[in-house]
């Protein structure tokens, strides 16, 4: 059964009711004009939002911001991370690991990065230091690895950052191989439990539903890449012990909610149906059996004759058309106080249209129900690949372009 939004239901009900009244033609004309005027007067991002949220209106006020360019000349930058001394690490999809020191990009890439398969959307992806980096100097990378003729695998590597070189680099987890160049996105985040959480993609095929595959999953790992103790499928025949959740498509954002402690992800739908999910251990999020998007040829991905997501975990937020979500962070800083507690999601393009990248700000109530979205930085016409909060309390962005940039968002 197709999910119908409130904004789709109400006009139909109103018009049906009005048709039975005397003078229905005049009433319909008046109602149409009123609906048009209301739609025009609503601020951007407010259309289609639930009613009864007037008490939150002051929280939803726009904040005047500007972007400051920190670095340019990066080839499709993918991920941002900070070292304890304030240096920023940046990955480029073609396999380079860069450093930004004192707001300046070091001209020399960090040596020792393993060779990557950099075709289309594959290549070097996430970078993340160990929580005890000051003592062990470990840095973690996810990348697409050539593993055979026309075969690649999403891979987790670890090495020690010594000066401007990674040493002792070792692949500590290699997912099952597949043929292709897309759908291999991988993000990393450390949990409060000290474990490493890793996303893997499975855009095509049924791997996301296969318990013996690491693709299309969120994995929970020790810092050496082994399965973490206490995982939900530990000891279950036919299941990989690393699996924390399954049924995911192409996951390009991963973060812990600082208030609830829950793990949240975002993932790309096929043709629409991008999602944000609250991740629970052992749960199945449905891909490719259910989706709120269409297939690329046009038909719906899921069966429209059945309730959407029946038997699977539904998303907490979704987009139709899609914005090609990438990057996910909860803002907890003080430099942009009106944004504190809000969720930020990067967008690569809106509805498959080039040059329509943006940053979405999403507000929730105390029950984590969506109140409002605000689309930011649309005038940049840049693909926003990553969004992270820096140690200085500002938000930083990576633009996924041939001449990509690192931007900082500041109040005007």
- CATH architecture field of the largest domain: 6 Propeller
How many distinct domains? 2
What is the terminal-to-terminal distance?
47 Å
Order of helix and strand elements from N to C terminus: HHEEEEEEHEEEEEEEEEEEEEEEEEE
Strand content: 35-45%
The global form is globular
User: Main sheet, how many strands, which sense, barrel?
Assistant: 4 strands, antiparallel
Radius of gyration: 22 Å
The CATH superfamily name of the largest domain is TolB, C-terminal domain
Q: How many beta strands in the DSSP annotation?
A: 24
Q: CATH first level of the largest domain: which class?
A: Mainly Beta
User: What is the multimeric organization of the chains shown?
Assistant: single chain
Query: Biggest sheet: strands side by side, in what order?
Result: 1-24-23-22
- Kindly identify the CATH topology of the largest domain: Neuraminidase
**Average pLDDT:** 86
- Which structural category fits the helices and strands? mainly beta
Number of helices: 3
What do you see in this structure?
The chain is mainly beta and 412 residues long. It folds into two domains: 1-41, no CATH class; 59-411, TolB, C-terminal domain (Neuraminidase, 6 Propeller), CATH 2.120.10. It has three helices and 24 strands. The chain has helices at residues 6-19, 24-41, 133-136, and strands spanning 65-74, 77-82, 88-92, 96-101, 104-105, 124-129, 138-148, 151-162, 165-174, 188-190, 196-199, 217-221, 243-246, 250-256, 263-268, 274-279, 317-319, 325-330, 343-347, 358-364, 370-376, 384-389, 395-399, 404-411. A four-stranded antiparallel beta sheet has the order 1-24-23-22, with no helix packed on it. A four-stranded antiparallel beta sheet has the order 2-3-4-5, with no helix packed on it. Mean pLDDT is 86; it is low at 1-58.
């Amino acid at each position: 059964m197709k999910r119908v939004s409130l904004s789709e239901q109400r006009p139909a009900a109103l018009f049906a009711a009005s048709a039975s009244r005397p003078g229905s033609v005049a009433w319909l004309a008046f109602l149409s004009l009123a609906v048009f005027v209301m739609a025009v007067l609503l601020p951007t991002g407010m259309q289609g939002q639930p009613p009864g949220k007037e008490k939150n209106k002051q929280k939803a006020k726009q904040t005047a911001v500007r972007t400051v360019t920190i670095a340019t000349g990066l080839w499709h930058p993918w991920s941002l991370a900070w070292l304890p001394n304030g240096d920023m690490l940046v990955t480029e999809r073609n396999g380079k690991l860069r450093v930004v020191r004192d707001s300046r990009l070091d001209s020399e890439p960090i040596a020792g990065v393993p060779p990557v398969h950099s075709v289309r959307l594959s290549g070097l992806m996430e970078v993340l230091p160990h929580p005890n980096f000051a003592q062990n100097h470990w840095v973690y990378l996810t990348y697409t690895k050539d593993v055979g003729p026309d075969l690649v695998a999403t891979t987790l590597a670890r090495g020690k950052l010594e000066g401007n070189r990674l040493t002792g680099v070792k692949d500590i987890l290699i997912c099952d191989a597949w043929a292709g160049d897309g759908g291999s996105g991988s993000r990393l985040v450390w949990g409060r439990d000290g474990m490493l959480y890793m996303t893997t993609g499975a855009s095509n095929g049924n791997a996301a539903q296969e318990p013996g595959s690491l693709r299309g999953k969120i994995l929970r790992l020790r810092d050496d890449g082994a399965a973490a103790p206490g995982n939900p499928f530990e000891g279950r025949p036919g299941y990989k012990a690393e699996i924390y959740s399954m049924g995911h498509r192409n996951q390009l954002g991963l973060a812990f909610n600082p208030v609830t402690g829950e793990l949240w992800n975002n993932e790309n739908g096929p043709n629409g149906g991008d999602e944000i999910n609250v991740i629970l251990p052992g749960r199945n999020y449905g891909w490719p059996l259910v989706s709120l998007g269409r297939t690329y040829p046009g038909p719906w991905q899921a069966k429209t004759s059945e309730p959407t997501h029946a038997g699977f975990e539904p998303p907490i937020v979704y987009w139709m058309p899609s914005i090609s979500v990438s990057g996910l962070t909860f803002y907890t800083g003080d430099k942009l106080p009106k944004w504190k507690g809000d969720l930020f999601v990067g967008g690569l393009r809106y509805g498959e249209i080039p040059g329509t990248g943006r940053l979405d700000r999403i507000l929730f109530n105390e029950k984590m129900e969506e109140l409002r979205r605000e689309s930011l930085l649309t005038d940049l016409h840049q693909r926003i690949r990553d969004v992270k909060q820096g140690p200085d309390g500002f938000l930083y962005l990576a633009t996924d372009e041939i001449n990509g940039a690192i931007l900082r968002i500041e109040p005007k």
